[in-house]
Amino acid sequence: MIKDILQQFNISGTHSGVSTGAHWLPGTGPVLSSSSPVDGQHIADVQSAGRAEFDAVAAAAGQAFKEWRQWPAPKRGEVVRQIGEALRRHKTALGKLVSYEMGKSLQEGYGEVQEMIDICDFAVGLSRQLYGLTMHSERPGHRMYEQWHPLGITGIISAFNFPVAVWSWNAMLAWVCGDVCIWKPSEKTPVTALVCQYIVQQVFAANHVPEGVCCLLAGGREAGEWIAQDTRIPLVSATGSSRMGKAVGSAVGARLGRSLLELGGNNAIIISAEADLDMALIGCVFGAVGTAGQRCTSTRRLIIAENVFEAFTQKLVNAYQQLRIGNPLDERNHVGPLIDKDAVQMYLQALDQVKAQGGRFLVEGGVLDGPGFESGCYVRPCIAEVQNHYDIVQHETFAPILYVIRYKTLEEAIALQNDVPQGLSSAIMTLNLREAEAFLSAAGSDCGIANVNIGTSGAEIGGAFGGEKDTGGGRESGSDAWKNYMRRQTNTINYSTSLPLAQGIEFGL
Ligand code: UN1
């Protein structure tokens, strides 16, 4: 089945991972070998870029920008509309491949492609709504307004956990804004990126889009550094760990470039004594075990009112006992594997630290072995009661480890929720309006996303997506995130017969 999908896109043996669109450049960087965490099978080898190919790609992108920026935005939107149509046609194939290469459940693989389709639709509408403002000038016979122009090359560095959707959030907006893109996908999931390149290229060829608007640059850390340091790339959008984001942010900042950072989360749900506990349970369990705890929005902490702590944790334990772990392409399973064995090691180290720092396990973790688990990447989702200040709890571990913490007052719960370095997503489960509004108020959650009666993960594309503190401060996807991809220009036009100076300054000759 996966073989058929690869064949459909001409992917076999060692495939170039460097492309400016129709052209695939022979890469001179290391070969990235992609194998599936589902069954350990090798998928394909991808030849990554050397420095010379990076320069060639950046030059092609720069050239393409000169033309693309002059296409009317609605025409660029029409091309993106067709990408959305192509993604609809390829949803099953791409969704399966995402599930197989990354390890998320098939439902989530399809969901990821749906998220791509949704952002295409959003971007199409946006292509007619890149609105500026008009202002009233203080001078007679003058008009003032601001307009938004394309910015240039957008560098996109994406992570393995959403191997294709996060690229599309950036690329679709960047394209309608008139930018061109260079995408460095995660070295752990290069094959899904090849497929995206093929899908886009078919649409671009049919529309005579210039070569260089959609560039792929497979590579590791070095390729990310080239992008971050290059003054030809005015905007770098990076998704990944806070450690990576700090390195990218400082390299881009050192050259006064613009960066859009979407980094780690340490997301909590407050379970109030006034919550609908049965309803809350679904949000908590999906948030904690969905994508095997490898979303930046995964629920890592539950802050539970003391008087419902026993009742709610009992429900959680029962739910965890029913979880089916196994091949994510089998739709009966809830939880698939972690991305690779390194991730399994990090999960195991985290479990040791939880114990060493005083945590008490309500559901024990562990690595699964035997038939069906040959890849060595399947782990048990687990739950531990901890204190919020433990060092391990303050860190984001990309694995299905859920921490439970007790609270007495809402004030204390909000303080615990905020008391971590990260600030991406948060939620409260309560039927009490006062509690909900306090959580959403200026003195409430300090995160970029704050929800009531839904979980922390699974945000819709229509809202701005991102968070504060160590999450990096960037906002991608919906709302006015498009402004990141454009440069703003203020224009003042004098249509009078004199040239009065602002602030009433007299300057006679
Ligand atoms: C990510 O994990 O980097 O809100 C993105 C969500 C998804 C996107 C997650 N829509 O969980």
From TrEMBL:
Aldehyde dehydrogenase domain boundaries: 27-490
Domain of life, per lineage: Bacteria
The protein, known as: aldehyde dehydrogenase (NAD(+))
Family: Belongs to the aldehyde dehydrogenase family.
SUPFAM superfamilies in the record: ALDH-like
Enzyme Commission number: 1.2.1.3
Keywords: NAD, Oxidoreductase
Subunit structure: Homotetramer.
Entry's Gene Ontology molecular function annotations: aldehyde dehydrogenase (NAD+) activity
Active site: E262
InterPro entries named in the record: Ald_DH/histidinol_DH, Ald_DH_C, Ald_DH_CS_GLU, Ald_DH_N, Aldehyde_DH_dom, ALDH7A1-like
Lineage: Bacteria, Pseudomonadati, Bacteroidota, Chitinophagia, Chitinophagales
